[in-house]
Specification:
The complex is a heterodimer. Chain A is mainly α. Chain A is about 45% helix and about 10% strand. The longest helix of chain A is centred in the first third of the chain and has 17 residues, at about 205-220. Chain A is globular, with a radius of gyration of 26 Å. Chain B has 16 helices and twelve strands. The chains are: A mainly alpha, B alpha/beta.
Chain lengths: ~650, ~475
Amino acid sequence: MMNLKAFKTLVLLVGSLGSAVCQAEATQQHNYSIALSPGATSISAIENVALPSLEGLTTVDGKNWGEQQVRLVLQTFAWGGQATDRQIETWANMAPHAAIVQILNFEPVNLRLSGRAGKDPSSQYCDSLTDIQQFWGSDHPDNPMRLVNRPFYQILARNNPVVSQLNLYLAWSRLVHTPGCNMFLHKMALYITNYHASIHVQNAGPSLIRAYYDDVVQQLAQSADFVDLMNLAASHAALSRAYGHVGNHFDRQGEFNGNDDFAREYFQLLFGIQGTSEDEAYHEDVTIEHNAWLLTGMILDLQPGAWGSERRSDWLISPINFSNHFDASGRFIPNQSAHFSVDGSPSSCLEILHEQICGANAEQKLMALGPVAAAHPESMASIPLKLIRFFGDDRLDGAEIAALQAAWQDAQFDMLAFLRAYAISTQFLEGDAVKLRSAFDRNIAIHNANQLTTEEAYSELFRNGPGVRMAEQGAQVFSPIRDVFGGQTGNDAANDRFLFKSAWDVNVTNPDFLADTLEPYRLPGVDSIQYWSKDWSQVIPKDKRGWHTVSAVGEWLWNHFIGDSGTNYDAVARAQVHALLATGFDFGAIVNEQDPGVVYSSADLASGELAAFVDTLGSMNMSLGKLSGNQRVGMAVNFITALPYTFASGGE
Amino acid sequence: MERRAFLKQMILASSAAGMAGVMPRLLRAESCVASAMPRTLINVMLQGGADFRYLFMPAPSHPDSLYLDGIWNARSSLYSADYGDYQQMFDSEYLLASDPLSGLPFGIHNSAAWLHSQFEAGQVAVIANAYCSRNRRHDQSILNADAGEPDLAQLNFDRAGWGGRLIEAIPGSGNVVELGSSVSVFSKGSQPGDRMARVVHAENMRGMALAGQDEESAAGSRRNVLARALNAWYEGRGPELANEKPPGWAYQTFVSHRSAIQQFGLAIDERLAQCQPLPDELLNLELNNGSFAQQCRNLFDACQLPDVLDLRVMSMSYGGWDTHDNLAVEITENISDIFGAAGGLATTFPLLDGIPFAAQPVSDQLVMYFASDFGRQLAANGTFGTDHGRGTYSIMLGKPVQGGIYGELFPAAEALASDDGRIPLQTQGADISGRTSTEKILAEACEWVEPGTSTAVFPNAGTADIETPGMLDSLLS
């Protein structure tokens, strides 16, 4: 078994050979993955290199790696992605360790994962909410966004010169289903900013929380190192303001003035250290107390007029300048002298977690503390579980927990290596992993599956993305329901009967949301109204006769939205899907128009006239080139996505 | 931005773009069936660690002047710097109350004027020096409080809550009705994989039913087609899956959701259609926390049909009590919302008396219990707030409550040097010393709801801490 270090060495070696088709994803020490240049078709040299197995996790055997497993990985880690059937087949035919480096990486653009519609002009802004808001809200000639949408993505509100929270929500909700943008990267950034090192927009403000998100995305693109990421979060202006340690300081008499809020949560939330493995008094009175002292001198600069806003709170900017200085507004910012060490000596130290944490200012001390905290036994035990409970499995048992902890130890804080190893592990793919889906997960995945082209992505009205449905169902990005304890989890969603009701209700009362087939829109400089129309024939394959038969379309749709290779596509569901696709009506209505509410069981449909009728419907040919055919597909999509199988995955 | 505000903005934005939003339709009714309201407990979880030491402060005439000086020095930064002394602060901020049991004068913050009136009416019990957990961590402590297990050290939310256990201990049927936006551990039952079997989630009592067929639309309308198709699948496959799949099958939860909503939703909608519409006072209720206002509306409606809901326990919640900084502003808003003269309960409770009843008036049958993660530290921190502590006050409210103070409201020991020589009121990090386990308090509540249930719900209550043995024996009647 090749260990991680050996693998990194090999990758560096391969990289140095100057392969014409390959490029290293990043040059950071902890980043070893390999990605193709867009459009490249073969990386056989790299794919034959074994991805390092991590202690505790066994890579699934190649014969147990196929389309169903690829789709499960996509659903679980990347909101389904937008990969083509051909790409999924390609991954299914590759060795799992080779496929996974293409599926899961932190490049801002991953055209294999989300490039269904080819290159998109927004792709160059995939690593920045700020940049993409400015692009989508602009009159840039390459901006593909329909005219009416543009004011809803600008930095400033439509009729008010303040940074818009609403536009920030809408922009993120669109970014995560934008062709080309790496959905795995953004799911990880969501995890960090809204779950793991979570803050609430009402405490940080929209400008700072956007900066925080962008900085996390860009840090991930550079390095998947957990310590680097936590150091970024802990020293970030957005957290300083949101938690309130922005005001913590030592006064001229050397007295501490502040609170211990983030001093405590730094350990508990960022590193999973509860302090239960040692003397409680030491944890409370030394570790937390001294960390409160460490978190002094973290005042934010004010830049008058920032973002063109007239609201003063929008003028607070990131990053924190940890020195004594005057900011752009002329205020004296005593971040050096307000820090624990009033003399600014680099030898200034605080005892935290039984170590001397030294540095001239809060930033330097945080950089010193991060590796200590990450290596703490409680952190080593809990961080891998936090990651996997968010991404892969809500029901970890004792053996699985032990295996994940061993793997995290072996991964040396490399989150990408850890998640890749897990994604192709027998524990995830062959065990009993169950992932309950939050309203983020479910709605974005459905939207990704339902969006077929770039034109569809940009002609869609601003309110018709997944954002509104997610908000209706309790998942609002940057407004985590538990504030610093994070957003809606899969467990929360599963325990919320009203969320289920909301999901059901919207599919029943507003079927056009998913079954929209025609959308008029305007672009600047074009006099005529443009029309986007849905065309499922572009993605649903024809049979050998060149037909789209109802049964084949139904199976394809089931697999496209559910991804279980038809495991749960039972006779009752099949009857309804066939009826909806063939006629646009439900099965009960076409069997007995006078009494359409009759319920048919699996036994009723197993044989006899009803079974034959289902087959007859299935054999009918669909005209997917016509709007009516696409409307029927939309009805089937509404039906399929209101079944239990979009609320969770795995567990079979 | 709250979810409600966000959605409101979306509707406004849609309107601005020429797209009208759809507003919910209120049900109208002529009469409501008078039902017998059973004894019902309402647990209100105040998430974040409420600083009830701010809510209750000693009167300037407090007999222990050392304590008075100590607490003023420890907490004066929480109040306006304009106050010259404690008397001035107290007169501006607090309403004088008197413990009917001991005669002790003390103050209740004036943002809680309704709570003060209820206390003066003998319907509020304050149990001092209570503890529901042994730690200072929000998530763990909320779990401890919801589970009713102060010593639980595992952070595992797949657990029965004491509300769920109480329902299971009551002979016959009964449900926990969750009035908030998500079902907490408090409400969950003891059956792994089916912990919501006895939970009615009533996030919006005026919209409980699943969207079904619209009788005003054609049978072939897209809505009606989809409603029939989905109903046919869930009703056709649901019972089959229950037999085919093993216990704990991941998707069973969602089949059960549909079944539960279908079962209660239609019945609730039909009955509420016969009852009075939401009174204007509740329709127009605007609080700092919109979710709590909605929960108050749900509370009123739930009390209109206790028989349909099979009501015995309800659950409410209110977040935002983690007051590390600017405590006065934040906590005053929260307290006003819940306990203020124009707050949610002050608005709702008088309306409950207008609900037709079969035996006892509705409000005679309700007891509210206010829980929080933990209390906060005694001394203010440097950002005009207080940091996490452990001990706290428990508050119980209702006509069946024997009002008064239970335990030492302001422990003299907090102003005296402890074994390590430090005076708690002068020591950063010191907190209220927990002397009474909430197990003891809540066991009394269980006995009131249904005699004979406390042992099953709180098996350790018999040996749990209590400040003075027997002091809670007459807490409820």
